[in-house]
Amino acid sequence: MKTAIVILNWNGKKLLEQFLPSVVSFSSEEAIIYVADNASTDDSKHFIKEHFPTVKIVENKQNGGYAKGYNDALQHIDADIYCLLNSDIEVTQNWLSPVLDVFKREENTAIIQPKLLDFKDKTKFEYAGAGGGFLDLYGYPYCRGRVFNDLEIDRGHFNDTTDIFWASGACLFIRSKVYHQIAGFDEDYFAHQEEIDLCWRIQNNGFDIKYVGTSTVYHVGGATLQETNPQKTFLNFRNSLLNVVKNVPKKWFLFVVFSRLLLDGIAGIKFLLEFRPVHTFAILKAHISFYKNLNRFLKKRKKLSKKENYNLHTSIVWQYFVLGRSKFEKLK
User: Given this structure, which CATH class describes domain 3-219?
Assistant: First the structure.
């Protein structure tokens, strides 16, 4: 299988200096490595050409964020499997083989995520994807090994291969034919949670999403936008609502949308009580943007495949904040 590792870069020379060596060392025999440059103004491209001449560069004309950046770059890359890899990830020896083996065995598997551990504390799972992602009744994402901001220690309890609902965009393997079949990422997201929409649409087209815990990578996280950045709050809340509008099944649609708007309001009050009003305003801004985009996303919804693949058995908000369940295995 022809595999391409594609690292999206925007003014990220320091990250490339730190993390590209591990990718080249542990991947170059099994894959072709690309850097998709989002119109950087630093000397990232010069650095790559000078120090890593085997790494190919795809130059995008503008910084269209994660979604458009990959959509533009992947038009120019010929491969059976794309690995979309953040520039702040350290890969490990033999990280590719377990993933590619599953693709070879399981033709219906379209996307795979490896185990994501925290680069800053390698004993713990990392926020962005941990041991594979799921959604609750209201469209809130959570992971095996990570519920809201609670991160579990890796005890080898997620060293399995299993079905998941969504894979992290920090390290996402996808069959190229499926990626292009569903027209890639929705560029209206710009960044954050566009991979959840992608996975949702792919499942609605009958394909499987897998987690392979025998492959491990370490993710810094927050290298582009820190967790405390209100822009990250804005994108996460807005894009999560857009995911709901596009993909929730018809019978649950109104209930979920109105419940989410209410729960988001409660989250905004919580931020105020914690003396973090910038995040309250970020949620308000997210809702304003959501209403501005609502009609366009309702039109998108009508064009999508039947929306039945959805987790309806839990409320992660209730279990975490009311019942105090902060570990995946305690959720019911």
Answer: alpha beta
